[in-house]
Amino acid sequence: MSEKFDVIVIGAGPGGYVAAIRAAQLGLKTACVEKWLNKDGKAVFGGTCLNVGCIPSKALLEASHKFAEARDDFEEFGIEAPDVKMDVKKMIARKDKIVNQLTGGIAMLFKANGVTAFEGTGKVLSGKKVEVTGHDGNNQTLEAENIIIASGSVPAEIPPTPLTEGLIVDSTGALEFEETPKRLGVIGGGVIGLELGSVWNRLGSEVTVFEAMDSFLATADQQIAKETKKLLSKQGLNIELSARVTGSDIKDKEVTVKYTDAKGEQEKTFDKLIVCVGRRPYTQSLLSDDAGVSLDERGFIYVDDHCRTSVPGVYAIGDVVRGPMLAHKASEEGIMVADIIAGHKAEVNYDVIPNVIYTFPEVAWVGKTEEELKADGVPVSTGVFPFSAIGRAMANGCTDGMVKIIAHAETDRILGMHILGQNAGEMIHNGVVAMEFGSSAEDLALMCFAHPTLSEAVHEAALSVDGHAIHMANRKKRK
């Protein structure tokens, strides 16, 4: 006889484990199925984010940034640190230690909240049943009133550059290099490609980023994007736009990439090649033929605004459904669905989900870009303030970048905030909170911000919307 639960969650990534914990906290008998095995063959929780995504990449970004800062910038601060060296193996070991601590922490949270964990692969069957195939090959069937699918996503591959052990790798493989490659190619100029390219560029790699589109960071505000490209190029990233990869050859432990650009057919040789062309929803062996759960034309599970699938009582969240593939978006959807199952009203405000690129300086934004708003015919007023005029940024030696606030020209309501600068990922929450509460630019302008802080640039940008910035000359006349 199959074991029965109120809720079964398939996947223990940032969507699934959060949903499971929340459901259990709300008094629901909850199970969570996870198939991930770490490189030691041990079952672990956390999904892509904790194991091979958000967390390990940030550990490498932080380590490489500290190294580059010590090598290139300490002298300006009066700190003498000659012959700074990086032990890549130690850097990787530290990353692994952090990952193990966090994944182990989820196991403890499951135990503390009474979530029953099942190790193996989950498949949704008809009649609200889930088949769990253990790593030993044995099957068991679970039943539940509600099922939450949180199976996540996997790196996309492209035919011209098939993955080859040690030479052509995806984002996961790029987190495991044991030494710095002299020449590194990165296919894809999106978030993942820029972050991984930055890590190895700081450690001494000659990095070329191939981006097929003719614009850089097309989804970001283009004023911010253009400045970001300029800064990353200055750091040493060779960013090739309109560069479409057509093939690759492997010879003598080298990879030659063939591509076309405005100049015609080109080729370039590397010691390592990272393929970062996006991610695709993971639905392999997830649904039985009669499960009744519908997929859209791109392979995502179809859901409504409350993450309900085409089958009553079956929900799907995170990377496997529409919307940005962001860990925090998945977590909020997990909480929403658990609350709905428990009988509460819940929503996710998809208009105020922040995006962050953890290069240095960081790029962060929430809401609409100026291009999107103008394309929709929305009248806008913008305020921009550079970090070069902020005392704390000068003291930190990080004066690159700016804060940009976009407000409705008639109502003054904030429609978007875009930041390029040190700690932009922290400061963007000024915009998230403001937009969640429907603030105007004047609301931010009237608030008192601590001095000296980087966030003063947010205050000044809000003042700048009406031409009232204090610490720079305004282009607009005072009203």
Automatic annotation (TrEMBL):
PROSITE patterns found in the cross-reference section: PYRIDINE_REDOX_1
Q: Where in the cell is it found?
A: Cytoplasm
Task: Identify the keywords attached in UniProt to this record, alphabetized.
Answer: Cytoplasm, Disulfide bond, FAD, Flavoprotein, NAD, Nucleotide-binding, Oxidoreductase, Redox-active center
Which SUPFAM superfamilies does this entry report, sorted A to Z? FAD/NAD(P)-binding domain, FAD/NAD-linked reductases, dimerisation (C-terminal) domain
Q: InterPro entries given for it? A: Class-I_Pyr_Nuc-Dis_Oxidored (IPR050151), FAD/NAD-bd_sf (IPR036188), FAD/NAD-binding_dom (IPR023753), FAD/NAD-linked_Rdtase_dimer_sf (IPR016156), Lipoamide_DH (IPR006258), Pyr_nuc-diS_OxRdtase (IPR001100), Pyr_nucl-diS_OxRdtase_dimer (IPR004099), Pyr_OxRdtase_I_AS (IPR012999)
Which ranges carry the FAD/NAD(P)-binding domain?
Answer: 5-334
Q: What class of enzyme is it?
A: oxidoreductase
Q: Which reaction does it catalyse?
A: N(6)-[(R)-dihydrolipoyl]-L-lysyl-[protein] + NAD(+) = N(6)-[(R)-lipoyl]-L-lysyl-[protein] + NADH + H(+)
Q: What cofactor is needed?
A: FAD
Residues holding FAD = K58, G122, D319, M325, L326, A327, H328
Where does it sit, as one GO cellular component term?
cytoplasm
Q: State where NAD(+) binds.
A: G188, G189, G190, V191, I192, G193, L194, E195, E211, G278
UniProt-listed Gene3D superfamilies: 3.30.390.30, FAD/NAD(P)-binding domain (3.50.50.60)
The note describing how and how many cofactors are bound reads:
Binds 1 FAD per subunit.
Q: What is its EC number?
A: 1.8.1.4
Q: List the disulfide bonds.
A: C49-C54
Tell me if Cell wall biogenesis/degradation is a UniProt keyword of this record: no
Q: Which residues form the active site?
A: H451
Pyridine nucleotide-disulphide oxidoreductase dimerisation domain span: 353-462
- MF terms per GO, please? dihydrolipoyl dehydrogenase (NADH) activity; flavin adenine dinucleotide binding
Query: What GO biological process terms does the UniProt entry carry, in alphabetical order?
Result: 2-oxoglutarate metabolic process
Xref: NCBIfam families: lipoamide_DH
Q: Which PANTHER family match?
A: DIHYDROLIPOYL DEHYDROGENASE, DISULFIDE OXIDOREDUCTASE
Anything else the record notes? The active site is a redox-active disulfide bond.
What family, per the record?
A: Belongs to the class-I pyridine nucleotide-disulfide oxidoreductase family.
In its UniProt entry, what is this protein called? Dihydrolipoyl dehydrogenase
> Which organism is this entry from?
Terasakiispira papahanaumokuakeensis
